[in-house]
Amino acid sequence: MPRIDPLPLSETPEDVKSAYTAHTTQYNARITNMKATLGRSLLAFQVYMDWYPLYEQIKTFIGNRPAYLFAYTVSVGSNCPLCTTFFRKIIIDHGEVPEDLKFSGNEQLLMDFGSAIAREQGRIPDELFEKIAKLYTSQQIVELVAFAGQMIATNVFNNVLETDIDEYLSSYGK
């Protein structure tokens, strides 16, 4: 049971409804329990939805699969049931089994980086960071770390408020 219920559409202010419409149109996304809870504050909704353009950006240099797997490893490292389930759905819908993922060497390094950012609260061993620095530019590393931070913020939001896992995700949980 969530600590704060998602805002019912019937109680949603017009400015938030407009933000919902813009978001769902631009990203072909749905208004989930998390987003409807964020809808209680237009500013909070807008800040958290900036996750989407950063996600699109990191896909340009790491690729689609590594991007959603990176988000998955951050979510697992943050112990966030909702976000982990969301990315399990993406993994499964792409024909893979989350418990049996195979990575190339560089993908494994990227997954280790994302997981370590979450588990170690950003305290990355020098050896791991140096390997990442050989693969990505400074700008790309900044974007990866910023994306991981946004993912962690999303994980924290859902964990603190105990946001219910959306019905459409229920069959994708462990």
UniProtKB/TrEMBL annotation:
UniProt cross-references to InterPro entries, sorted A to Z: AhpD-like
SUPFAM superfamilies reported for this sequence: AhpD-like
Protein name: Carboxymuconolactone decarboxylase family protein
The species this protein was found in: Chitinophaga silvisoli
Superkingdom field: Bacteria
